[in-house]
UniProtKB/TrEMBL annotation:
<dbReference type="InterPro" id="IPR008435">
    <property type="entry name" value="CRF-bd"/>
</dbReference>
<keyword id="KW-0964">Secreted</keyword>
<feature type="disulfide bond">
    <location>
        <begin position="279"/>
        <end position="320"/>
    </location>
</feature>
<feature type="domain" description="Corticotropin-releasing factor binding protein N-terminal">
    <location>
        <begin position="56"/>
        <end position="180"/>
    </location>
</feature>
<dbReference type="GO" id="GO:0005615">
    <property type="term" value="C:extracellular space"/>
</dbReference>
<feature type="disulfide bond">
    <location>
        <begin position="63"/>
        <end position="84"/>
    </location>
</feature>
<keyword id="KW-0325">Glycoprotein</keyword>
<dbReference type="Pfam" id="PF05428">
    <property type="entry name" value="CRF-BP_N"/>
</dbReference>
<dbReference type="InterPro" id="IPR056177">
    <property type="entry name" value="CRF-BP_N"/>
</dbReference>
<comment type="function">
    <text>Binds CRF and inactivates it. May prevent inappropriate pituitary-adrenal stimulation in pregnancy.</text>
</comment>
<feature type="disulfide bond">
    <location>
        <begin position="186"/>
        <end position="208"/>
    </location>
</feature>
<keyword id="KW-0732">Signal</keyword>
<feature type="disulfide bond">
    <location>
        <begin position="239"/>
        <end position="266"/>
    </location>
</feature>
<keyword id="KW-1015">Disulfide bond</keyword>
<dbReference type="GO" id="GO:0051424">
    <property type="term" value="F:corticotropin-releasing hormone binding"/>
</dbReference>
<dbReference type="InterPro" id="IPR035914">
    <property type="entry name" value="Sperma_CUB_dom_sf"/>
</dbReference>
<dbReference type="GO" id="GO:0051460">
    <property type="term" value="P:negative regulation of corticotropin secretion"/>
</dbReference>
């Protein structure tokens, strides 16, 4: 790995998926800096905290923030804050709702609070436009545009974000964040560098992806894709032509449409298929025609330094970072 090149994982975890720099009037986000210690303080304080049911957790919202618990988060502007973003994360089987409360901002002066259904980094979006059920413009919900007509926004997956711009000191707003069970999760960013997961698409025409933002060893243990259940395990040319298949993708971004295919699976089987993938982002992506119940089970763990070095010697780095 090149010393001078900052990898996607460093950008994602050392920058809390990049604090957005909002340029001009645009409401799309780009990079900013945050230290490693700051990042892991977010994860240590938020991801492992358990909120007692008898009260609602409350704390101030920072201009750059990572939130992984339910609660009320209040931002009070002590000075103009023009480049702020908060990233929200839940468990894989949950979605997130964000409610606007006690909003005191000046929309006419250019203030805004915008909830995005997913995460954005360097212009790339998760989930990608190909995999999200809504058109892109519907994924942005701006308080100043919707006002009192829409005070609550719910994500389609386990991540969401809010970015905001405040021009005047003394302005403030409160966000109430809650998590809700999602019986059929689709499109997930993993919180953990290791674990196991089963992705099921119940006769729905949609694409679902599970994103692991680490180099990992991955074992696909079960694979059931509709009309190939009774066929022998064999290679089939053109998995995409079948309409029901699973892809393993790798690369250095969060948009699955821009990642490189490692392998396609379109024949059902039971039994381990093992791979080591040295990319900063590894994605298991399932494409479903909607005609069948599709299912894939897999486990994963982060690669250790020796395994990464071996992959580097085998030129896997070129695949992951040079394309």
């Amino acid at each position: 790995m090149r010393v001078m090149e900052r990898t996607f994982r460093e950008q994602l975890f050392f920058l809390v998926l990049c604090l957005s720099v909002l340029k001009g009037d645009t409401r799309y986000i780009e990079n900013n800096e945050i230290s490693k210690d700051e990042l892991f303080s977010f994860f240590n304080s938020e991801l492992k905290r358990e909120t007692p049911e008898e009260f609602l957790y409350r704390r101030p919202l920072r201009c750059l923030d990572m939130v992984a618990v339910e609660g009320q988060f209040t931002f009070n502007a002590e000075r103009p804050q023009l480049s702020c973003a908060a990233f929200f994360m839940a468990e894989p089987n949950e979605v997130i709702s964000v409610d606007y409360d006690n909003v005191d901002i000046d929309c006419r002066a250019g203030d805004f609070i915008t909830v995005f259904d997913g995460w954005v980094m360097k212009g790339e979006k998760f989930p990608s436009s190909q995999d999200h059920p809504l058109p892109l413009y519907e994924r942005y919900v701006d308080y100043c545009d919707s006002g009192s007509m829409r005070k609550s926004v719910r994500s389609s997956q386990n991540v969401a974000m809010v970015f905001f711009r405040i021009h005047n000191a003394g302005s403030s707003f409160t966000l109430t964040v809650r998590k809700h069970i999602n019986p059929f999760p689709c499109n997930v960013i993993s919180q953990s560098p290791e674990g196991s997961y089963t992705m099921v698409i119940p006769q729905q025409h949609r694409n679902c992806s599970f994103s692991i933002i680490y180099p990992v060893a991955i074992d696909v243990s079960e694979f059931s894709l509709g009309h190939y259940n009774n066929f022998p395990k064999r290679a089939m040319p053109g998995c995409a032509e079948s309409g029901d298949f699973v892809q393993l993708l790798g690369g250095s971004g969060i948009d699955t449409s821009k990642l490189l295919p490692i392998t396609d699976l379109c024949i059902s089987f039971t039994g381990p298929t093992h791979m080591k993938i040295g990319c900063d982002n590894t994605v298991v992506r399932m494409v479903s025609s909607g005609k069948y119940i599709s299912r894939v089970s897999f486990s994963y763990r982060v690669l250790d330094s020796q395994e990464l070095q071996t992959l580097k010697l085998n030129n896997v780095e070129d695949f992951c970072f040079n394309n």
